[in-house]
Every structure is written in C-alpha cells, then in structure tokens.
Amino acid sequence: MADKEKRRSGVNPPGMPAGKATKSDSDREFLSQAGVGDLLRGAILKMVEARSDDPIGFLADHFCNLASVTAAGSGGCGDEEQVNTGTVSAGAQEQQRLNRALWHLRLAHHSQRSAFSNNVRVAYDLLNFTGPQTCAGEFSEGPDGPCTVSPAGGGGVRGGLYTQTLQCLCSEGGVPASTSAPLLRRLHCHDHEAVPYDVFRHGVLTCAVFSDYIRQAQRLYAEVCCPGEGTASRALCLAVLGTLKEALETSQGSDTNYCANANTKVNSCPEANVKAIRYLEASAKISPCKLAQAMAGAQTQGPGGNMDAKEFENAAAELFITRVKVVS
Amino acid sequence: RKSRMNRLNPTVPADQYLADSNVLFYLNDAVIQLLEHKEEYNQFGVIRYFAEYFSSVKNSNHVLFREFNYIQATPHNRASFIRVFWKCYRQIGKSGDLLSMLEYRSLLQLLCPDFPVVLVQSAARIAVMDDTIDCLMSFSDFLYAFQLQFYYQEFLDCVLVIYQDLLAGKSPNTVIVPTSTSIEQIPSVSTEENNKEERPQDGVEPSTLVECIDALCDRFKHSHPPRSCMREILNQTDRISYYSFLMSLAKQEAINQTIGVLPNCTSIPSSNSSSSAVGGLKEVQKKASPRRNIHHRRRMEVESDGSTEETDSSEN
Fold first, then answer.
1. Which of A7, A18, A104, A133 has the most other CB atoms within 10 Å of its CB?
2. pTM confidence score
3. B87 vs A: CB within 8 A
4. pLDDT of B42-84, one tens digit each?
C-alpha cells in the first residue's frame, strides 16, 4: 500500500530539490488532514468486495452516498451533525449552514414577496459567514434594499456556496440537472468571488421561478400528450411553446409601469418584481382558452412527428433562460 | 488482452480486477487534481470532490479539455473523447461540410489543447485511403476513421509493421508457424511486388495477413478489434491494401458497437460522389491516383446492396 499511498499523494520521490519538497510536504499534510488515505482505502476495499461489473459506476455511487450521508443536515433545527471522525470541521459546518439556508428558502413561495424576501435575507446571512448572525431575527416587513445593519466582516457569500445553493434549489424544485445547467451557467459565480446580496437574491429568485416554470411546462406537456403513448405531436408542442414564449415576452414592457406604482412597503428590487409579475402574466396567458386556440391552429398545419417530454422541457427551459441576465 | 469484468467469475484475482478497471489510474489522477486545488477543499468537500470526479468519469464527461496523456490513457477515456468529439461537432455532419485534415485537427485541439497532429494524419489517411491527405473529408468518414485510429492505436501500428513486412517480401516479425502454404505465398508476394514501391495502398495476400493478425492478437496486451470482424473483411477479397482494410474496419458496425459510443455508421450522412464498392473492399491493382480536392471515394458499407465493382476508371 505504501507505494500506492505515495502515488496517490502525488508526492515526489526523495531527492527532489527543496522547493518541490515543501510542496509535497504540504500536499501530504493536506491529504492526511482530509483523511484521504482512509477514504480511498475504504472505497477500494468495498469495490473489490463487490466486484461490480461497473467499477467506476460503483465508486461514483459509493462516494455520492458517502457525501449525502455526511451532508444530511436536519433542516432548521440547528442540531450539530457529527461527521465520520467525530469532529465537526469547517466543511461540515458549511454544509449545515447550507442546509439551514435552503430550509429557510423553502418556507415561503416566491410569490409571497415579503415573506420570501425575508427568508432570502436570513439565508444570505447564514451563508455569509462572518456576517451578523445575531441580526437574523431583527428583520421585519420592510425594505430590504440597503441593509441597515451592514455585515461586520463578511464580504459576501462564497461563490461556490452560492452556486451550490442554486443547484440545490433547482434540483429540489424538480428540475433535472441537465435542464438547469444552462441556467446555472448564466447565474453562477466563481468560487473565489464574494457574492453580494443583490446577486444572491437575483439568483435565488430566478431559480425559484425557473423551477415553477419547468413544473408548469411539464404539466403542460402532460396535457397535450396522448395518454398511452409517451409522446406528443410536434405541432401541438410547438404551439404550446409559442404560447409560453409569447407570455414571457409580453411582460417586458411592464417594468416601468410597475415601478411607478411601487408600494414602498414592497421589496424595492425592481428586477425581482418584474420576474414575479412576468410569471403571473405568463400563467394567465396559458389559460385554457388561449391554449385551446393555439392547439386548434396547430391541428390544421404544422410540422409532423412527435416531441418527447425531454425535448419539450429543454425547449421551454431555453425560452426562459435566454431572458436571464448573465452574472458577470 | 482486455478481460471483461465478470461477476460470474469470482476467481479473478483482486489485482487483476483492479488493473482491468483502471481504477487506480483514476484515483491517482483524482488526487493529483485535488492537490492542485487543495485550497478550495476541506474535509467534507473532499468526499464530494471524489463523488463528482467519479460521476463525471462514469458519465464520460471527464475528458473535456484534459491533456492528451489523460485522454488516451484508458480505453474508456478514449471512447469518451470520441463521443465528446462527435457530440460537439455533429452539426458538421448534418450540414454536409467537407473539411481538411488540419481543420479537423483544430477542432480536436479545441477539445484537447495538445492533441498531436500525427494521430489526426493517420486518421485522415484511413478516411482518404491514401498517403496524400490534402483533400477534404466528410465528417462521417473522418469520425469513424478517427474512432478506429484513436481507440486501437497500438494495434494499428503493429498491423502496419506486419503489412509492410509482407509487402517487402520479408517473413513478418511476428512469429507464425510456417506452413507450406504461407512459405509459398510469401515469395509470390515479393515477385509481384518487387517492382513496386512499398506503399500501404498496394496489396497483400489476405490469408497471410489473417494469420499474422491472429498471431498478433494472441500475444497483444492492448485492445484490438474483434477477430471475427477482421477475418470477415479479409476473407472477402483476393487482395487487400492496408488502408482499405482499415477503412472497412472503421465502417464495420460490429466494431462500432464494441466501442459503443457512436451511432450507427450509416446514420451520419457521408458525402457520396461515387458508387459504393462491393462487399466493402476496393480492388487494388494500381498505385493511388492523385486525389481531387472535392471528390472522394464513397467508403464501404459492410451491408452493401450494390454489386458493381469499382474499377479504376470510375474513380476519376
């Protein structure tokens, strides 16, 4: 095992110049601190024991299971989850915070604007580590634009954590990873970046709306799909997609109107509001009669063939995603 | 010879099981990559990291933008790369554009920055069935030739050596049991060939080639195409040239399925400027004619419906 250990740690053989030696020392230290040796040894033993036909797949599953077991937080209850070795390290703490943040974000639907905003604020503070956790309880219904209590040391949520939050939101919202990937590409931040509150809120809200949108799209597909067959006629699907697209486009011009009428009590972030409104109007557009109109039109003409659920979902997702501003 | 993972064969020793799966290679690479970014990871993140690494290997997403040494290191990596190449550029297949060898190389380098030109050249030679590769190729022709070349690289190199030895009239390096027939055949090859240059588009006796390839497979450590596929091709003709043999292999659906990452050979449109050859093989009696830029021979389909044999005149 010794030489495997060496190989695994990427350590240079003895006799290398001093510069390299320092690197390999720190590498070794990192690996032993992170428990990599034991981790991999355990994995290999399990793998050889199982003799699966798909060893790589087996390892992938093994590590995924391990990761979810050690990450399993208990939502907002706040009890400490012990990691394998029995010590609660920074990483485990981070995961716990993430879980609690997600729990908060799930509490209110994004259409309940003020409640949702509060929850986003709480989640943000949880993830913005050196921030003012003590202030979490002090927020009530009010403008949450410029924060009256500015975080002491926390300069923002770590980019990786932010991206992870978005990923979880999408997958918990029932959006398959492949569908949400293009959206996340537009929203994500690099790990080394510190995400400010506005960006965090924008991302979270977009993902929440997107999840709803996709679920709606899935429901729509189920409507037009022939029961019994797995697919729907392409013409019908295109008609439905057209309606969705139209719905998304109509509310483009409504920003200015809304802002002029803005109630001071309501969240002052205009972009988020526009999205919420857009969604509501989109739902209205996809009313039964509008849909029936589109479908009637489609029956008589249009391309032949069928469209399956995945293709429909991807097309619907694309309509939404192209409207999302890229986070720079 | 790659042994298949087999649950029903509990006597596969642990070492061999580990070796065949290339797991240690992946673990090694995973740790090296981890160390390069160790500042980003804590103890918990490490488990997640390995989960993601192996998930991406399992899903064949792991080769994109990696260095050449990595992507060619295991059969799975090679197959994954071929698949990525196809997925990224299949639009070319649909649009029917013809590209040059260097253009394909550029495309490959977008996916793997240090992808060597030598490999692309070899693939192009198969696709074009000639040494001179300055003409344009369809995506389909290049893709399947590339698959064969990249996946079975080591094997093809050995076959070429054997082939050239046969052409030169030498007894091939691989040890074959000299039977009376093969001894007779080798001199006859040299008599016919001694006035010609030894170029891979000239032909050899297929049965001799089959024997040599069989012997090669017996001792060969790397992957090779299924023997039945190779025998099938070689049994169909009196004379076979290196490139026509390879191109037949490239377009064999059975081989495509063995590698298992690309769709059916016929599903990607290939440019069709002349009729297909019978049984997939080209009659070789001449030196290759100079290539035209746009025309290029329609490559064999194994399930051929046409029975017209291509003659030289129809080429031009």
1. A104
2. 0.50
3. no
4. 777 899 999 999 999 999 999 999 999 999 999 999 999 999 9
